[in-house]
Amino acid sequence: MKNPVSEYKYAIKLFFDEDSENLVLAYINELRSKGLLNANFINAQYQPHISLAVYPELEQEYSEKVLQILAARFAQFCLSFSHIGIFNAELKALYLGPTFSAALRDIHNVLHTLYRERPEKCWNYYLPDSSLPYNFFWLNGDMKLNRNRQLFI
Asked: Given 1, 16, 67, 117, which residue has the most CB atoms within 10 angstroms?
């Protein structure tokens, strides 16, 4: 089966301040140390983030304008994580889910509104009516759910 992630080369993400980033990494490391997470793709280059959109192609000049619009319109905001979630579809991912806030909703919606009439097509998983933005930290490994929806990694 072809890996759908390989077709989507570009992502628009929100990154955390250093203290928040360290908290997310500490949480991931705690899961690893207890044997609950085998996330081999998380290495020194991994930077925790919230994925707002993923695209197979993006036009650079327009994308730069979009990022400037978002940066001018939105100030830094607080974010809380309330759950761990699982996507168990063609893409299997374990993610840290933020509590959905007005600020997160607004930046997500504005981003997708700016791309609505563009030829670039966002992966459906990231559209506002399909999903909430999230921070995934484990992707397409040996994840299995039993009938009781218990996770085995």
From this structure: 16
3-state secondary structure of 38: coil
Could you give the count of Cα atoms lying within 13 Å of 100 in the half-sphere of its Cβ?
A: 9
E strand map for 41-91: 49-55, 81-88
Residue 92 has pLDDT above 80, yes or no: no
Cβ atoms within 10 A of the Cβ of 108, count? 22
Structural tokens at position 107: 């930046």
Centre a 10 Å sphere on the Cβ of residue 83 and count the other Cβ atoms it contains: 10
**Is 0.90 surpassed by the pTM of this model?**
no
In the sheet that 135-139 helps form, which strands lie side by side, from edge to edge? 81-88, 92-98, 135-139
